[in-house]
Amino acid sequence: MAANLLQKRWRQKGVNITVVESPDIGIIGVGEGSTPLLKEFFDSLDISESEWMPQCNATYKNGISFNNWSTVSGYESYFHPFPCSLDFATFGLLYKYTALRRSGVDVLAHPNRFSLMAGLTQKKLAPLPAENFPFHFQYGYHFDSVLIGKFLRGKAKESGVSHIEGTVETVEQDSDGNIKALKLKNGDILSGDFFIDCSGFASILLQRTLKVPFLSFSENLFNDSAVALPTEIEADAPVETLSTALTNGWAWKIPLTNRFGNGYVFSSQYCSPDEAETELRAHLGVLDSDVEARHLKMKVGRAQESWSKNCLAVGLSQGFIEPLEATALQFVYSTIDQFAQALEQGGFTNEHREAFNEQMNANFEGIRDYIVLHYKTNSRSDSQYWIDNRENQKISENLRAMIECWYGIEDMQEALTRLEIGSYYSQRSWTCLLSGVGIFPRQENLAVPSASDALKAKEDLEYVDHFISGCSMNFESQNKFLGR
Ligand SMILES: Cc1cc2nc3c(=O)[nH]c(=O)nc-3n(C[C@H](O)[C@H](O)[C@H](O)COP(=O)(O)OP(=O)(O)OC[C@H]3O[C@@H](n4cnc5c(N)ncnc54)[C@H](O)[C@@H]3O)c2cc1C
Description:
Elements: H1 2-10, E1 18-21, H2 37-44, H3 49-55, E2 59-61, E3 63-67, E4 77-81, H4 91-102, H5 116-122, E5 140-142, H6 145-158, E6 162-165, E7 168-173, E8 179-184, E9 189-191, E10 195-197, H7 204-209, E11 214-216, E12 225-231, E13 241-246, E14 249-255, E15 260-266, H8 273-284, E16 294-297, E17 301-303, E18 307-308, E19 311-313, E20 319-320, H9 328-345, H10 353-376, H11 384-391, H12 397-407, H13 412-419, H14 427-436, H15 451-481
Flavin-adenine dinucleotide binds next to strand 1, strand 15 and helix 9.
């Protein structure tokens, strides 16, 4: 991703880019769901869906369903949709009815009822409306992580990036500590002006060589391990990622064209890798299958700064927030984009490095808080893991303020603006999560709505249902036309 983006941007400026990849070490080989920023990434490179999607076994993703994170009756599952420009027509009503329900009135306030994307997803419709449908939809993808790497390597080479297979053994620095050259296992030396560390969790340049400290997020994100395993794809596969809470973490289920990618993200403090694998197999109904599972360790947190001296870390070497909202590749794209802007604005100097690093750190914290919210609001009591997550008080001040805002029936948008965190996750996302898991006064304490509120609620829901089914027809026809 980095090589392609920078090559496109700087080729005319005479910048030469070389990628070194180790065939001995390989890639992490997971990470198969995206946010809408991956579409922006491919669009920015003028690569069409019809070119890359078939080569990467890719499918469309409307959002993520969160199942069994909550035990509140009627709220055991909810959908977190990607934004669409028609949200304005229904989400205002979601905000209205969640506020009413937060204040103790018994009205329907489940987010799925108010979301067109949730309606489409329930019908397994890809986010492809009829061509004359004049509204913009954001969506993500599912893809094979090995194939997407291969595809992008080919694209980078085609556009003039040099590609070397080799393993970096030592790193040479000058007297100021800047990186001067990389020495490969075969003895070759590669010198350069600027180095982008894409070496994964090893972070051989930024963290190992330049000694930039790693700040762990383990005090509020407990998961440090994962086990992954494929299963057979179904004929009528979903257009969403499924995230299902298990005993000590959660399982992902990602539909590709040829298989499901599955995995269990868990905390090794609460269960062993063998226990996690057995639970995942049982969850998938493949206890007796001999398909091999892959076990992975995750380093969750961030480098103190992403850009130090003449080195920028991108991807896992820069930091990683666990994959619950599939944000890592979005982070790669925004890191490269913002870095390129900062470097260009400073005339290819370090002038804007500090501001860039502050922005990256704020991005990490902003996304991290929303991920922590999933754990903080769980209502499961079947294991110590879920109880500890719910009772954990080590959360950021911003997250605390947002939770207080919800309970205090204050305006969520006003709070996001005041805290300057609305660009990470919007009112839509916060409301979907908090109402989706049923953070409301208990059912037995709810008051019956007044006659006029009840009538208005009924009319509003009829309008929403009508609106969603009317819009869905545009998608049904196009999905059918495309043979989906
Ligand atoms: C369990 C899990 C689930 C995930 N799910 C998602 C998801 O749904 N969505 C998402 O966006 N992201 C997800 N991610 C993150 C995603 O996998 C990564 O962000 C993405 O794959 C990029 O990884 P990377 O390139 O930084 O590291 P890697 O894939 O580890 O690549 C590192 C590269 O550096 C090379 N290298 C390392 N050391 C050397 C050396 N000494 N010399 C030469 N080369 C070297 C390796 O050969 C390799 O090519 C997930 C991660 C995990 C752990």
